[in-house]
């Protein structure tokens, strides 16, 4: 084993949560060593090649961090990289069609514009629409003020946040379905118009925590969506550069093999090996470890007693949904066949009630037999993405999937089913946009198994733990935290907070804050 190298912090994994945590701690002067099992950075925040097709791993759009209320704004500004990245507005949040909607509906950016568009489409519910969106806006504002008060130690902002927090407290334990039913009754088309992009957060309105929906969807409505020019890897590279510029180290192609603990159960070192050979073991000493991975992965690196404690703390928590993503490489821009929107969502005709949104997640357990699940289309050529200036041009189609859909299949059978679903989705796109099939040069479908392998998450959970309503009162705070039962070990991923780019970065920032306080005190 190579001689141990000394650092203050070891980060296991280079997803956005790990990179954010590592960058913040490095910026504060701590010695950071980041270990990544892959040979590229970013995890889901990356761009890669499949044949000749360039694929965006996960980013379709994120709430625009140039808005000071956006949760990423403060983090990126503190790191000095907010304005080093070109954020491309993606236009309206989405255009949704199908399901309980008789005609397509486009949800615009901005609370005022959203109120106007929704009220024009559903005039009988105009008053309820205004009240609902005002509540979403107030939840955004109150939690932003509370966060700013903590950062700035501002009594005035704290008072303002507490004064505005009533809507959060009122619906603290409510599901999205609960609130939509209370506000809009049986107006299923309106519910679909407000939350058609649910698969970006979860799979079931009856289990989705309303407060999380309010924060996530409110961020999109208030700030607008944005794509990073050049792809999400640009953000990952900037964060990694912050680490190395401060004297930290980023090691690629290295698998963490063990987390060593001292007699008090605190991390003292991380061992890692070359991914390809499993050899060339190195040992890095550290006073804190940040796990940018699922708690199950971190637990497997620990001694038996600590592993059992991790299992007790996290083993019974419900996992988020997984996704499928069909990538088509086209010989011309989709605009040539009438697909002009950046973000489109298609709901199945059979879905007459919004509460049935997640029913399609089980469809991929068999070959296509007619109905398709709800799916979204990301048309990257509708904006100046900085990619796909030459063919093949990427068009991505995504929707809900589950690992159970693919268990027990041989590799050949799984490959055949993926091809059948690529055929079915392509046929639907051809029906809606005649000429689509003639543009297809390449195609590939990633399923829940693909997500599990790429993200190294249990059951291919793409969003960490499911965003279920909390069982505790608001006085207990947010129900997810980067803390673990092992002192000095923190989760800097969606498993330590909420999901998506925002959730992963917030979890990384909170993990960095907790680790920094411990390091400063030690």
Top CATH class of the largest domain = Alpha Beta
Spatial strand order of the main sheet: 9-8-17-18-19-16-20
Proper CATH architecture of the largest domain? 3-Layer(bba) Sandwich
The N- and C-terminal alpha carbons lie at a distance of 28 Å
Give an overview of the whole structure:
With about 525 residues, the protein is α/β, with parallel strands linked by helices. It folds into 3 domains: about 5-60 and about 230-315 and about 470-520, FAD/NAD(P)-binding domain; about 110-225, no CATH class; about 320-460. The protein has 16 helices and 21 strands. The strands form 5 sheets. It has a 7-stranded mixed β-sheet, sandwiched between helices. A 5-stranded parallel β-sheet has the order 11-3-2-15-21, with helices on one face. Helix 1 (about 15-25) runs parallel beside helix 16 (about 500-520). The model has no long low-confidence stretch (mean pLDDT about 95).
Distinctive features:
NAD, seven-stranded mixed beta sheet, globular, flavoprotein, alpha/beta, FAD, 3 domains, 16 helices, Amino_oxidase, 522 residues, signal
Topology:
Layout: E1 5-6, E2 9-12, H1 16-27, E3 32-36, E4 47-50, E5 53-56, E6 62-63, H2 71-79, E7 87-89, E8 94-98, E9 105-107, H3 111-121, H4 126-152, H5 155-164, H6 166-170, H7 176-184, H8 188-195, H9 210-223, E10 225-228, H10 233-245, E11 249-252, E12 254-261, E13 267-274, E14 282-285, E15 288-291, H11 295-300, H12 304-314, E16 322-330, E17 343-347, E18 375-379, E19 393-401, H13 411-432, H14 436-439, E20 440-446, H15 448-455, E21 489-491, H16 500-521
Parallel strand pairs: 1-14, 2-3, 2-15, 3-11, 8-17, 15-21
Antiparallel strand pairs: 4-5, 6-10, 7-10, 8-9, 12-13, 13-14, 16-19, 16-20, 17-18, 18-19
Helix pairs in contact: 1-10, 1-16, 3-4, 4-5, 4-9
Protein name: NAD(P)/FAD-dependent oxidoreductase
GO molecular function, one term: oxidoreductase activity
Keywords: FAD, Flavoprotein, NAD, NADP, Signal
